[in-house]
TrEMBL record:
It holds the Pfam family SporV_AA. This is Stage V sporulation protein AA. The keyword Transmembrane helix applies. Keywords: Membrane, Transmembrane, Transmembrane helix. The keyword Membrane applies. It comes from Irregularibacter muris. InterPro entries: SporV_AA (IPR021997), SporV_AA_N_sf (IPR038548). It comes from the Bacteria. The chain crosses the membrane at residues 105-125, 149-167. Residues 6-91 form the Stage V sporulation protein AA domain.
C-alpha cells in the first residue's frame, strides 16, 4: 500500500552539463521530493559512469526509473515531468582565455558591426532617406536645403537609442527591471529548439 515512507516524487531536469569522465547520479539529473532518508538513498544511485564517446546524448527517463527500481523495488515513484534528460559532455574547463579566442571575439564583433552598417545603408538607399528628410524639412520650414542636419542628426541618434531601449539595455550597468529583452527571448527560444531537436534525435545511450 502506498504511503509517505516508501514514496518519492521525481522532477527530471531538462539538461545537464558534465565534465568528461564524471559519473552521473540520480541527484544530478532529477530533483527528488520525499522522506529525507529516502532521498539520501535514491540520490546516490549511479546512472552512468566512465568515459563518454559522444559529447551530446540523452538519458532516458525509463533508464533512470529502472535503476531506481532495481535498487528499491518496493518504492513508489511519481514522475512530475516525462521529458528525457539531455546530457552535454565538456572537456576539462580552461579558465584562461587565449589570445586566439580574444582575436576571434574581436573579428566576430567587427563582422557584425560591418554587416549591420551595410544593411542600414542599403535600407536607407532603397527608401531614398536623404530625399525624404529634405522633403520633410521643406514641408516644415518651407525651405530647400541639401543637408537638413537638424533632422538627420536626431534621426541617427534615435536609431541607436531606440535599439538600446527596445533591447532593454539602456543602462550599461544594470537593467531597471528583470524583464527579459526581445533578444533574450529569441536566444532562449533558439536554445530550447536546439535542445528539443537533440533530445528527439540522439540515441538514449552514452556511446
Amino acid at each position: 500500500m502506498e504511503n509517505g515512507e516508501n514514496m518519492i516524487y521525481l522532477q527530471p531536469k531538462e539538461k545537464l552539463n558534465i565534465i568528461q569522465g564524471t559519473s552521473i547520479y540520480v541527484e544530478d539529473i532529477c530533483e527528488i521530493i520525499g522522506e529525507a532518508k529516502l532521498i539520501e538513498k535514491v540520490k546516490n544511485i549511479e546512472i552512468l559512469q566512465g568515459t563518454y564517446e559522444k559529447t551530446v546524448f540523452v538519458v532516458s527517463l525509463v533508464m533512470v526509473l529502472d535503476k531506481i527500481r532495481n535498487s528499491f523495488p518496493e518504492l513508489y515513484i511519481y514522475v512530475l515531468n516525462e521529458k528525457d534528460i539531455l546530457i552535454q559532455v565538456e572537456e576539462t574547463k580552461n579558465i584562461k582565455t587565449t589570445i586566439f579566442e580574444k582575436i576571434k571575439i574581436v573579428l566576430v564583433c567587427l563582422l557584425l558591426l560591418i554587416g549591420a552598417g551595410v544593411t542600414m545603408m542599403n535600407f536607407h538607399a532603397d527608401v531614398n532617406m536623404v530625399e525624404a528628410q529634405k522633403n520633410f524639412y521643406k514641408m516644415v520650414t518651407g525651405k530647400n536645403v541639401e543637408k537638413p542636419l537638424w533632422i538627420a542628426i536626431p534621426y541617427s541618434l534615435g536609431i541607436g537609442i531606440g535599439m538600446m531601449v527596445f533591447f532593454n539595455h539602456l543602462s550599461p550597468k544594470k537593467r531597471k527591471t528583470d524583464q527579459p529583452s526581445p533578444l533574450d527571448l529569441e536566444m532562449d527560444s533558439y536554445q530550447n529548439n536546439i535542445d528539443d531537436f537533440m533530445r528527439n534525435n540522439k540515441k538514449e545511450s552514452k556511446n
